Amino acid sequence: MAAATHHTAPAEHATTMGIDHRKLLMWIFLASECLFFGSLISTYMVFRGDSIVGPYPAEILDIPLTSTSTFVLLMSSLTMVLAVYGAQHGRPTMMRVMLLGTIILGLGFLGFQTYEFRTFGAEGLVPSTNQFGATFFVLTGLHGTHVGVGVLYLASLLLASFRRTGLGRDQVLHIDIAGLYWHFVDIVWIVIFTIIYLIPQ
To answer: Smallest Cα–Cα separation from 150: which of 116, 192, 179?
Structure first.
């Protein structure tokens, strides 16, 4: 019976659908983010062939490097799943280690992105260079910002878990909600990676 309480929202926080209102708010937020990224991706698709001056996408995109960073981000989804598993099954050490692993992998992805941006800048591609540069940096830069926010979010949960009371009685819910956000960021990147790097210009 005690284990069941980990998955049931307290009555004061439950909506009429039986979902905790905090989790519902995260779903609503992610739905709005789908519209946000959808508009950015659509803008990129509309203007992707409008580069007037070089460097052009085919000349500058480093698919092997970005494939590696994509793998790193996808592995962070696995560690996030394991962090949620640890929280659900009363294994705080596992939860903390996996949260730390997710944070490290997220920082690794941001490191790859920073290196890519610096390399592009050195080769002459900046937001003001051409239409591709403008849409590319806005789309990938805002996604990177979301990853950074996610890293800070997870770091705050990790630090809070070391308090005497930990994350409180809603520990599973807090980790689960963070997992929703993190998986969303990963899914968005898969779409961005496919459209920018894998579909020929």
So the answer is: 179
What pTM value is reported for the model? Answer: 0.86
- In a domain, residue 130? The reply is yes
The boundaries of the domain holding residue 126 are: 62-201
Q: What is the pLDDT of residues 176-195, one digit of tens each?
A: 999 999 999 999 999 999 99
Q: Which of 180, 166, 201, 185 is nearest to 36 (CA)?
A: 185
Residue pair 133/126 in contact (Cβ under 8 Å)? The answer is yes
Q: How many domains does the structure of the chain reveal?
A: 1
Per-residue pLDDT of 72-95, as tens digits, reads 999 999 999 999 999 999 899 999
CATH of the domain at 195: 1.20.120.80
What length does the chain have? Answer: 201
